[in-house]
Structures are given as C-alpha cells and as structure tokens.
Amino acid sequence: MAWLQDLIEKILSFVPRVHKLEPFQAGIRTTWGRYIGDLCPGVYFYWPLIQTIWWVSTAPQVVDLKNQSCRTIDGHDIVISGAVQYKVVSARKHILNVHDSEKSLTTLALGVLCEYFNTRTLEQCKEIIVIKKELKRALSNAAIGWGVRIEEVFVTDLGKVRNIRLLTDGSSLIQTNSGVFTD
User: Which of 2, 51, 134, 147 is the most buried (most CB within 10 A)?
Assistant: First the structure.
C-alpha cells in the first residue's frame, strides 16, 4: 500500500498548492533549489514539483543555556547558566545562513559566556548588570549574519564551585562537598 501512497503523492506534485503564513511567521520561496524571494504573512500558491516554501517564527523566542563551568583569569572555578531571548528579523538570513538555529545559538552563547568569564577576575564576575550588557553585545556581534536580534541575555545562576573531573574505567564518580557518590 505504500507504493500507492507514493504514486498519489507524485501525481499531486503536479498540482499547485496553497501555503498560508500566519502573522507571526515569515519565509522564503525556492524554485528549482534557488532562492527566489521573501514571503511575509499571507497566502501563497506554489508548485510542489519545483518550489518549496521555508518558514520560521518571528515571535520572540527564548533558549535556555545549560550550566557552563568556567575558570576566571585569577584561577577560580565558577558555574553559570542563563537564557537568551532573541527575535528573527530576517527570515532569508535565518533560513539560509544557519543550520539548526536554536542549537547553534545555544552553543554560540555558551562559548561567548565561557570566553567572557575566562578573561575576567572573580571580583569582576559579581556585577550581573554589567555582565548582561557585555554578553548581549558580544553575542549580538557573534551572531551577525544569522538574521536574529538578541533582545536580552539573562543570568539565572552564577556561583563559585569546586570543579573536579575524574577519568574512570567506566564507573562514574561524582564528588560533592559532602562526599563521593557512585552512579
């Protein structure tokens, strides 16, 4: 029965279709694999055999940044986590210039965080308002050409930690301030 469904899909690829972009979406249309034009909210007809419509949400989005351990320039281990609020401002750039945009933005933000804290002392890391401004500026510069505007950077956790990494023979050990636990 799968062959029948494939046959029907092939036949229907010759028939024009309708795609509707909602008010919070923007997109692009490609024909024969080449970029043709930007699409704003509205109704569009396309030929599935030769055209594709790609779309993204333009509503503000927030990506969560997992805990990132860093070492300050004066040798203190810290851990930081946060979030980045961004908005897609160019669907064309966002679709054509970035692969897996949410994962890319998360990874980029974690790299910017670590780079920032690796060049500061522990005392400089206590000013959260300054950190947020600096990180927003650095992340905005790093994401140039991605079609996004960084609206806000949030610092949810920031603390001094004792960072211990153990290489074992397959068993996992976790050391905390209160003892050693085995998984």
Answer: 147
